[in-house]
Amino acid sequence: METVSERWAVVGGGMLGMTIALRLAQQGKQVTLLEAAGHLGGLADAWRLAEWVWDRHYHVILKSDLHLRSLLKELGFENELKWTETRTGFYTDGKLYSMSNVVEFLRFPPLSLLDRLRLGVTIFYASRIKDWRKLENTPVADWLQRWSGTHTFEKIWLPLLRAKLGEGYGKTSAAFIWATIARMYAARRTGLKKEMFGFIDGGYARIMEQFIEVLRKSEVRIKLSCPVKEVCSRDGIGVNVKFGSGQSEILDQVVLTIPAPTVMKVCPVLSQVEKARLSGVEYQGIVCASLLLKHPLSKFYITNLTDPSLPFTAVIEMTALVDRSRFGGNSLVYLPKYVSAHAPEFSLSDQEIQERFLSALENIYPHFHRDDLLCFRVSRAPHVFALSTLNYSAHVPAQTTSIPGVHIVNSAQIVNSTLNVNETVRLAEQAACALNVNSKQAELSYGNVPCESGETHSQLVVGPG
Q1: Which of 101, 150, 179, 409 has the most crowded Cβ, counting Cβ within 10 A?
Q2: CA 54 to CA 316: how far, in whole Å?
Q3: What CATH number corresponds to the domain at position 257?
Q4: % residues pLDDT > 90 (the chain)
Q5: What is the total count of domains within the chain?
Q6: DSSP labels for 70-133?
Q7: What is the 3-state secondary structure (H, E, C) of 348-409?
């Protein structure tokens, strides 16, 4: 019978870990939230740009983001969502085009009428697909060429795939483009065919501040600057969590929300099957620059770039969504570059990235001058999302591990959508329910296996069939 004395730890203090910690506490568990950094938030944290604080990475809320909106309501932001109709740009062949509505779509000069019609049919058909699993066997490039044609694929789809997936697009299934189109199409349906994006005034800095307050009121113990070194079973009774400081703590259950490579480091005694699944996850990372400018670059929230020689893969003008008065009349721009987790871009200095990015901006926007720059900061995150490789759902790391009381819940388990805050919250809600059910189930049969530290942990014995 479950009691309030059951002790849980959630490792990783991003939106995923914070949401799981809150739900577990609401189930009556004693919860400790462990975060290696000196603050919570993960990819949804914020930082200072000159005099202003805003998100470290670009985020928007869609009207179809029901899980996130429900959480925001619970945090007290029910009436604070602000909605703005935004526009989309396309930079191709050295020219900037608007592609924000049906008329502009049908008139898009770089494509012939037939190409535009095939592109429209591709998007419409993808939005109507219900069973995404049948797309997992097909490479995304093959599927898009079949429906949109070679010219449209090379002109539009290939640059966009490379922008988000790098050369990893060749390993990615058509389920990826389905998920991307499905989310944006759902947003337009909910937004009455308009591209309506939402935000909370103050950004995720304010959301995090309120979330932390709710966690504390729910009696979640928060430990920052507390990296976990190792997690293993303690004689089959409880879970031993060892910290980088040399200290340790015994808990009943531990939930790891950290990336797959980090899971393998802190859980060296996972089974070979588990390690194979974790090592099989291929991550895309991001190098993202935040720029505060005196003047806006364009009227578009997002400008898609089809030139592979550019050092960044899109231009996100946040102040096309959030009023510039929020930043003293200045413009906030994000320049993301999606790369593999081991890409050389991660070794570039901030100065090298700044020079490359500003030079490219000068080529794209002739009116841009470096004197407009007020602040330039670079964020690097090597493990942002997992590539939707062929048949990915059959190889996803399981949430229950062979170490009794140790569970894995991370973004690699998002298999039928793209990574965004709404899907992160959805995963957390589903996992918290499953963890609550699993903790009440009858005990399984275990066998003891030595831990690297010399203690023992228990490995699940799986019989035939």
Answers
A1: 409
A2: 14
A3: 3.50.50.60
A4: 76
A5: 3
A6: HHHHHTT-TTTEEEEE--EEEEETTEEEE--SHHHHHT-TTS-HHHHHHHHHHHHHHHH---GG
A7: CCHHHHHHHHHHHHHHHCCCCCHHHEEEEEEEEEEEEEECCECCHHHCCCCCECCCCCEEEC
Single pTM value for the model: 0.90
Domain boundary among 365, 386, 407: 386
Q: Average pLDDT across each block of 10 residues of the chain; the chain has 465 residues. List them in order.
A: 73 98 97 97 96 96 94 95 93 90 82 91 90 92 96 90 87 92 66 74 97 98 97 86 94 97 96 96 96 97 91 96 97 96 95 98 96 98 94 94 96 86 96 83 32 29 26
Residues 131 and 177 reside in one and the same domain: yes
Q: Assess contact for 314 and 304: CB atoms under 8 A.
A: yes
Do 294 and 379 lie in one domain? The reply is yes
Range of the domain at 345: 43-85+196-204+283-386
* Domain match, 169 and 153 both: yes
Q: What span, in angstroms and rounded, lies between the C-alpha atoms of 104 and 147?
A: 21
Stated as kind and residue range, the H or E segment containing 146 is helix 140-148
Q: How many residues are recorded in the chain?
A: 465
For CA atoms 116, 167, 361, 330, the dihedral sign is positive
- Give the separation between CA 406 and CA 397, rounded to whole angstroms: 13
Residues 397 and 268 in one domain: yes
CATH number of the domain within which 80 lies: 3.90.660.20
Whether 60 is covered by a domain: the verdict is yes
- pLDDT one-digit tens code per residue, 334-393: 999 999 999 999 999 999 999 999 999 999 999 999 999 999 999 999 999 999 999 999
Residues 123 and 55 in one domain: no
In-domain check, residue 91 = no
114: left (phi over 0), alpha (psi -120 to 50) or beta: alpha
Same domain, 177 and 313: no
Q: Are residues 411 and 271 in the same domain?
A: yes
Cα separation, 39 vs 410, in Å, equals 19
Identify the CA nearest to 300 among candidates 313, 288, 317, 325. Answer: 317
**Phi, psi (5° rounding) for residue 43?**
-70, -10
Alpha-carbon gap, residue 122 to 150, rounded angstroms: 13
How far, in Å, CA of 380 to CA of 368, rounded? 25
